[in-house]
Every structure is written in structure tokens, then in C-alpha cells.
Design brief:
Layout (H helix, E strand, L loop, with lengths): L15 H5 L19 H12 L10 E2 L6 H9 L2 H8 L1 H12 L3 E7 L4 E7 L3 E10 L6 E7 L8 H15 L4 E8 L2 E5 L5 E5 L15 H4 L13 H19 L2 H14 L1 H19 L2 H26 L8 H7 L8 H23 L5 H16 L4 H14 L6 H9 L5 H17 L7 H13 L3 H15 L3 H9 L3 H17 L6 H5 L1 H13 L2 H14 L6 H10 L3 H14 L4 H8 L5 H6 L18 H10 L3 H12 L10 H8 L4 H19 L2 H17 L6 H11 L4 H11 L3 H8 L1
Parallel strand pairs: 2-6
Antiparallel strand pairs: 1-6, 2-3, 3-4, 4-5, 6-7, 7-8
The structure holds zinc ion.
Amino acid sequence: MKNHCGVLPTCWPENRIVILYLPFFSFEAMPHKKTSSKSATQKSSDKKVTDSSSKLPKRATSVVPSDFLQSVREYWEQLDWGGLSEHFGNKTLQRGRNYAGGGNVQSLWVAEDGKNLLAVVVGTHDYKTRVTLEEGSRKNQFVPSSTCSCPVGSDCKHGVATIVRFLDFLANNKPIPLCRELEGDTWEIVTENEKTKTMKIDFDEYDDDDDDSWEDEEYERDDDDEPQVFVPKTFAKTNDLASDLEAKLNEKPSKELVAIILRLFNDYDAVREHFKQEAFAESVAKSGNIAKLVEKAIKLIDKAIDDVSYEYRRYGNGSALELNPVTEIIKQFDKFDDALAAVDRAARYLIKKGCRYADDTGAEDTSEIGLVFDAMAKTLIASKTPPVSIILWAYEVSHIDEYDFGGYALKTIIFEHNWPVKVWSGVADALLAKMCENVTENRDFETLRTIVETLDKANRQKEATDLLRTEAVHIREYEMLVDRLIEFGFLDEAEKIAWEQRQIALKQENRSNYYYRNDLWPDRLKKIAEKKKDWPMQASIEAAEFFKHPCDRTIPPLLQTAKKMKVEPAVRRSLEAFLQTGEFPVAVQKELEGTKPTTKDRQSWPIPFFAFVIDEKKQQPRFDVLCDWAIAEKRPKDVVRWFDELSGQKENVRKIDYEKVADAIIDTHPDRAFRLYRDLAEHEMEATRNYPSAVRLLRKARKALEALGRAADWPTLMAEIRATHRRKSSLMKQLDELNAGSIVNQKRRGK
Ligand SMILES: [Zn+2]
């Protein structure tokens, strides 16, 4: 066992110095003190502790495992390796076992009920790990999970190691020091000399203040075969270096700084170029000739992009695009009256040239171009340009910026700028005037959307709605109008237009865009129905969705709406009948044929018939859907019934998740569940050779046997399986573990 005494755990809470003086307790030297599980004094002391954790009342310091909640203790005692591997995966399990065996679990605490474990596990670093038992889906069933301060973060090997070490204590009924959650992830723990302290668990911390780089082993996600992510030290720490440097430079006297800069100037071309540009820009700014500046910027754009484009065309890759000199020049524009014209010219040129760059390089990295737009936007705002002109310019540029080079900069710097309402109003007026210049045929959706957006920002919502009403007719664009009418509560109007448009879409059935357009309206109509609490209409649309795609996704919403209509039982019966026979309810069938359903027909299908779009052909029975539905609603009897029907249906047999079926019926039909698990396991051992999966299924088969009262048959079954598959050595090893019994019992036998 490693000796960790005197090692300062880097992940320890705030008060590190104090901890340094506390020798880590060794498990063997733990005081063997039995405590009653929940004494009255303890409960009353809870309040005081949260008030001031420094003054702690006298309380129990450790707990013997036999004092845990009965159900929790049973869970831990019966846990076997297969159970652990089911949750953590085989690889993580092996690593965790090795860790526990190597003595890496340095400190361990347990909550009084046995449902929470805390530990400090030593690996490349010291990690704080917490294991929690969550309630499972069945009574007294638990599922373990772990969180950890290591880079993996959850369900890692440190979690496994914690559990395994804990089971050592359990096997020997040795007392374990107590921990108690005070508030979200702050725990009170007991130290080896029976003092208490608080331990804050920050699960995102990993060791930022540690000098070592992370070891790649720690990085690996244990369960999958993804390649390791290797982060070189220099990359991970660049930001730290920059801030360190900044701090150091801030302390230096200016003379020393000048010397450093001059040295850099002499040694590096890039630095020299930077100062050259700056000097040039300043001199032009003084001379008052912005035209010269623009020409220079354009020349620089040309050269930078041409160079990189050439490399790409010639060699298939190239150096990074460098537009910093351009940015430096553009920053000077703000001092001039005609800044807008200058920025505009540079922007248009950059977009044109940028398209070439994107084509040549496959749009590898256009962020450098984005940075120039960043500078342009900021320069305009700093200049004397009227805000309305800036915004109009930004809209215009966005319009021609096909590759969206400037999208982010314009959005965050100009469109999201805190302009007064008056400014937006001015923009809206200008855009409206421009739109009216255009003949209706030339008006487009994008412009309309922009105008509506600016009118909204100008607090002219009503005008925007009216504009949509009139323009929708011109440009045949109703979706935006209907969405807006729904948003502003004009539900009847929205409904009327939506139905009209749906009818038009249905008539265009033979057109290729029919399916896309057709699908646009049901969702909107459903939204309208929901808002109007028009349950029949909502149910009608949901029914159409069900008939189109009968599955466990379309059933629940329809039933819920039927409940609101107080007709759920009838609808449920009709859905079941449809899934069994593939025949529509009589009322639907008659509507499809154009005849009127009778009152009796309506009673068994009380959902009105709107413009259903469904395949009128007779459908196939869907026992698979019935089976899924029964599983979801926890109706095991029906699961068995539909499963049997399904087994006779060749075309649907592959749609069944047999394990899910077995899980759903294990309590009521353990015999059927047992056979399913056994057959599935056999399939995994023989055909797919997925042994971990086979072992998982065999574990479930054993549970089913126990439920049947036939636990005694297990050894026979195992002997058979072993005989059949004796050549598969890896499977044999896993079967050994399956039969070795619980971890605690193995540990007890080992003693
Ligand atoms: Zn971990």
C-alpha cells in the first residue's frame, strides 16, 4: 500500500493549512465505536450545524454498516461484479478494482443511511468522489452513480474504487466515519481525531492551480473506444501564460518596457509591420486624406487573400489569413466625416474578395474576415455617422454578405446596440419608403421580415401586423402572418387563414413541394386550437398525426386531449381496434368516402373530421405499437397479449425490443420473462458473441428464476451453458464472476 501521509491533497477545501496538520487517518486505526442510527439529539442538532459549522455539537462520528437502512444494506450486500459493470462498464470496473486493491482510496466517509459515499481517491492527483444510490423503478431497487472532481466527471474508476473500498468495510462490519450533506455539495465530514469539518465538493474544478499537465489516462472516457484527447501542456495553459505575462509587464517601469518593445521590433518582422502600419495610418489621418487610406486597405486585403489563396490552389493548404494591418487602418476611419462611405467601400471589397478566399480554401477559417467587420462596426459607431445610416448600411451589407463573414459582428455590435426607439423608427420609415419604390413583384420575404423587425423595435407593432396583412397577399407568404396573428392573439383570423392556406396546399398535391408546405399548417392549427382551448380541433389534428404515424409518440397527446373532451374511453377503444385490424373507425371511413356518419358512428369516434391527410388504403395491424403502448402504460397482461400476437406476424417481429418486453413482465409473468432472457442470452453467446450483454441477460434470467421460486434450477442451467460454450474462455471467465455471488460475500469468504 502506498503511504500518502503528508501529501497535501490539492483538491481539498478552502482551509488547506489546517488540513496539513491533520495526519490522514488510517482505516485500521479507526475508533471502533458503535452508534445508534438516528438519535434524538442528532436530529435536534441539525439546525445548529447549518448556522455555524465551526462550532459543532457532540455527535456520532462513525457508523457501523449493520446500522444502515435495511433495504440499503441489502442492496450493498447483494451487489455483484456484474451489477457494478452494468452501470460503470467493464473497463471502468477493472480500473476501479485495481485502484481499490492498490490502496488508492485514501479517505472514505458514509452518510448515515448508507446511500451516499464520499472519498478522496489518489491517482495522478487527489480526486474527490461521491457515490449516490438513487431509487430505481421498482420498490427497494437502487441504482448507483458517481460524480467526481476528475476530468471524466461522472461514473469513473474513482467511483468504482470508492464502492469497492466501502464493501471491504461492509464485509467486515467495520465502522466508517460519517458524512452529512449540509447544503448543495457541501458536506460535513469527520476527521480521524473525531473532529468535524466542512468539505465543499466542486465537481468542475479539476486542478487549475496545479503545475502538472493532466495525464492522458485521466482524460480517457473509460467506457468507449474513442481515441484519447491529447491536450499539450502549452495549449491548455496559454491563457494562464498571457495573464501571467500581463501581470508581470504591469509591474515593470516604462523604460524597461520601451527596451522590450524595441528588442521585439528589431527581432520580429510581424512587430515591425505592425508599427509601420500604425505610423502610416496616423500620418494619413493627419493629412486628412481618407481616400488614400481606403486604397491602402484594399491593397492589403488583396495581398493577404491572394497569398493564402495561391497556397491553397497550389498545395491544397496554406498559412493562416492575416488581416490585422487592414483592421489597423480601418480603425483610423472614425476621424473622418465620410467614414461611412470609406467603410462601405472596404466592406464591399472584402466581401467580394472573401468569396474568392472561401471558394479557394473551402471556407476553412473566415473568422479573420469577421474581425475586420468587427472593427468596421465599432469604427462607424465611434464616428459622426448618424445611427439610422449605420443600421441601414448594416442591413444592406448583410444582404450581400453571402458567406455571412460579418453576420456576427453586425448583429452583436450594430443590431443589438442599445439605440433609442426614435432611431429604429427612422430606420423603419427609410426601409418602408424603399420598399414602396419597388413594384410588388420585386418585393421579397427578407425585406419584409427586416421591416417588421424594425417596426417592432420602434414600438410600432400594430403597423407591423397590418403591413404583414397587406404584404402577405402580394408576396404569397402567409406563415409569418399567421405566426404573428397567433402571437398577438388574433386567433380566429389566424385560424381562418391557416385553413384556407391548408386547403390551397392540399389542392397542389401533385406539386413537388406539397409535402413541405402541407406539413406547415397542422402544427400552427394545433397551436391555435390549444390557445382557443378548442379540444375537438386539437384532437382532430392529433388524430390525423396518429393515423399517419401510429406509434407510442402520437398516442399520448391524442388521449390527453380526448380526456379534456371527456371521451377518452371511446377514443382509446377505437385506437386499439385500429391497431388490431388496420381498419379506420367507421366515422372516419365514411367521411373519407364522402358519406355522413351516423350518431352511433360518432359515439365510438367522437372526434370531428377536418381535412385529414391520410392514406385511405387499409392499414396493417400494428401489434408492435400496441405492445409498446402497453409497456409505456405498465399493463403487463396486455404486453404479453400483444407480444404473442406479434410473434405470429413475420414482418413486425424484428421491431420488438425483447429485453424491454421481458423487463415489463418480469413481476407478473416471470416464466415468460425467464425464457425471453435465456433465449436472448443464448443468441448473444452464440450469434453476436457479445458476452457482457449475454451475462447481463443471464443475471436477469436468474432474477426471474428466483421470482419463480426455482432458484435451485440455476446451477443446472449454468452447467448446461458451460458445457455448450466451454471453448469460449472469455465467456467462461465472465460466467465465473456471475456465479461468484455478491462482492461482500466473496470478501467475507476471502478472509
Ligand atoms: Zn473520477
